Amino acid sequence: MNVRAKKFIGANIRQVLLVLLAFFTMVLVSYLYVSRIVAQQMRAIGEETMNTMQATVTGSLVGSELMFANVMQSVETMLIENQSNEDILYYLVATNTYFSENHTAISGFLSVYAYIRDEFLDGSLWVPPEDYYAPSRPWHIGAVKNENSVYISEPYLDADTGGICITFSQQVFDAQGQPVGIVAIDIDITMVTDFIDSQRIANEGYGVLVDDQMSFSTHRDKNLIGVNINEAGGGYPMLAQMISDEKEISAVRFLNADEVDSVAFFRTVFNGWHIGIIVPRSSYYGQVYIMGAVLSIIGIALILILSYILVRTRVEKILSDEESMSKSGFLARMSHEIRTPMNAIIGITEIAKNTNEIDKMQNCLTKIENAASHLLGVINDVLDMSKIEAGKFDLSETDFMFNDMLEQVVSVVIVNIEKKNQNFTVDIDRNIPPAVITDRQRLAQVITNLISNANKFTPEGGNIKLTARKEKETEDGYLLRIEVCDNGIGITKEQQSHLFQPFEQADGSISRKYGGTGLGLAISKKIINLMHGDIWVESEIDKGTRFIFTAVVGVGNERKISEPESREENNEDIFKGKRIILAEDVEINREIVLALLEPTLLEIDCAENGAEALRMFREAPERYDMILMDLQMPEMGGHEATQQIRASGLPKAGEIPIVAMTANVFREDVEQCMKSGMNAHVGKPLDINEVLEMLRKYLKI
Length: 701
Known about the structure:
- With 701 residues, the protein is α+β, with helices and mostly antiparallel strands.
- Among the domains are: 199-284, 2-Layer Sandwich (Beta-Lactamase); 304-390, Helix Hairpins, CATH 1.10.287.130; 398-560, 2-Layer Sandwich (Heat Shock Protein 90); 579-699, Response regulator (Rossmann fold, 3-Layer(aba) Sandwich).
- 47% of the residues lie in helices and 20% in strands.
- The protein has 19 helices and 23 strands.
- The strands form four sheets. Strands 12, 13, 14, 15, 16, 17 and 18 form a seven-stranded mixed beta sheet that branches.
- The chain is elongated, with a radius of gyration of 38 Å.
- The two termini are 66 Å apart.
């Protein structure tokens, strides 16, 4: 290898590394930007949950305290009026009866009682044992210690109900201002603790309650109930210090007592108690991780595609500087063609997230769909060119009605033609037989590409004409001649020499003004060559362009062609009573299938890998009518799962329809599906009509 070649290869390796670095940086920046938005949304959800939780708990406890204050003041008024203990007991019994029978008045009320003038008075008429001495009880001691303030006991288990209770107690005074006793009520706060324990953020985590002594009253780990938060282990002492310092605890990262990396939210509520929600960090940031994985997959896919094209073309360009320049231009166009719809998707998604207007959101979704369709078209062009260069591009011949194919093409291109007010005419030779044999999709692809180019390079009000002629008969059928003629900007002789070369356009200004990847004509030429024809161009600057191609097609059998009638299908309830297994490891793909098929009432059991699908079928083979099987899944892929189902010997194992539903859409992928025992193949992205047709066929609807 000479010095020049070595330098050339070295320079191209550096360019490849720069492309990899650039895309890696783009993915990383996108991930950081979107993850920040998701994290802010998660924090807002946490704050909203804590606000609701704080209001509910505070309202419940404050209501209990207000009720107690009324009872205490009523008893103190009776003492000032020098009423007897008998009168006070009568009032306590009436109060106890009222609140016991009216649960909506005070939630969790248990009993009201007092110790007045050395006599225990219980509103529930409970008679204490002989050794019961009220002044030694915590509620009495706490009230005396607090003097004129309400004493709230630590939560405890009620011996009668088994629920978590607290006691409110306070001293009462006579007309001379002398303390003559204590009034108390017991409140069952099980409803409050159950409410706290059930709290989640984005359906994850658990709630906790810490009393004013900093001990856990509610916690998922029952061993921590009654334990001071400073002694709970992990990062709880840090949270305790933040609570003591009255610092905000919102999405604070810490280690749980079981050393799980977690996120905490805390609020202070009634009388110095604290409520909180603990969420495992992996769950809390689950959406961020999923988003990062999706962006990484997209980024890696784009990196691999572009790097593959770059490396392959750069090696070949050692022999041709001209080819090197053309492929550099292609990569620039590809970057533009991919980044433009990607930018639209990300930007419009952000707009949709920030609006509550249904019409505006629907408009955003329509624009996202259009951008995604454009991006899919670019990727399909790249994949087609990759298959061409790998020698795996071939045709799939079928019988079809020629005029129906042309009508399909016209329905696709007519929208853009009408936008530019162009005159479009079609001239079809009557000598062309109604039915022909060739690859319908690829023939339509070539004609669509030529008409789209004519539309792009013809000014508003211009003329475009599609002509189809039967040229001559051949041994294999007959030769078609198809022309697409326009009166657009035209193409110079120099530009024409580059038209059908991969990765090239007529000149650099074309991509800047009109866009495009420069792959369409190269792919069309390969298709026409496979149809044993040729394609060429005739053009003059400012006088228009005529693209002409020939193709050998067979004579079809019109009677054998069963064209589906054009009709509106009502898909509601059509699969009611049918049940299938959906084996798909990607959650968003499962959600898409479930949502698309929901109106059909098809019952769908989901499996996250082939092993799970195999287990579900083995446990109930008669339960299922069909299996939709992804190919590449963890633990067990679709091919192996299908083979094991077929070989299991279970009822229906040999005849249950198994349909591949995968992004692996090359011909060899489809053939491999058939070899492993599958019945059919549906490609991703999913075409709902294709899926419904497949289901109708195999569910015999």
